[in-house]
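Supplementary Methods, section 5.1.

A reviewer requested that the exact input to the structure prediction be made available. We therefore reproduce it here, unchanged from the version used in the analyses.
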Amino acid sequence: MRKKARIEDLVELMRRLRAKNGCPWDKKQTPSSLKVYIIEEAYELVEEIEKGDPDKICDELGDLLFQIIFQCQIFSERGSFSLSDVMDRIYQKMRIRHPHVFGDKKCSTSDEVKKQWVEIKKETKPQTSVLGEVPKSLPALLRARRITDNAAQVGFDWDRTAQVMAKFDEEREELKRALKRGKRAEIEDELGDVLFVLVNLSRFLKLNPEDALKKTTRKFEKRFHYIERAAKKQGRQLKDMTLAEMDQLWERAKKVQKYKS
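The structure derived from this sequence is encoded token-by-token as follows.
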């Protein structure tokens, strides 16, 4: 029976891939050239988590871990840090930020833990703003959610969901007025305001806006594919159908999918 690989085995494998007689492709990579693969592997992992297949999740976790080891090897070659430095740093950070587990602090709810996390982070990693250093490379909806989460921790927030809905109605009316004026920059600005309020609404409802939009997009895809299949059965192409005909198939798709679910 084959012995399972350890973290040390992966580090040695990566070292050999980057060695003089290693892989030409691996040897020429840089932290910057590998950025795209980190993002791709992270999204592939998220997709498999949503599907819920443990075997595929395990596989994608391995791919993401390999990218971390790859980065660590390159920086180790430069004398900057090693994988063990990365592991030690996160180990210490997690102990410091969980004093209710590893210390004498008391937190009985996840909200209390979240507030404590923000306070500890401010103490150990001073920042110029309570909004924190939310990566600009995050998807826009997720970044907006993170930023408003941080602002809410210091009380810059609504009290009730009804207030968020009132703000949504206000922003929607402003978008309507901008559309009538027809100025592109103004329309873009007002559309952004509407989206931003919806992100806040998702936060109040304890929902992830990225997940909500992804589910709706998948729902749209399924219904549109149904329309394509139905049109094909009729020997027709969508471009030759009227909107009313496509809407009829769309309504049929909604009923079929609702029945299946």
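The radius of gyration is 25 Å. These observations are discussed further in the main text.
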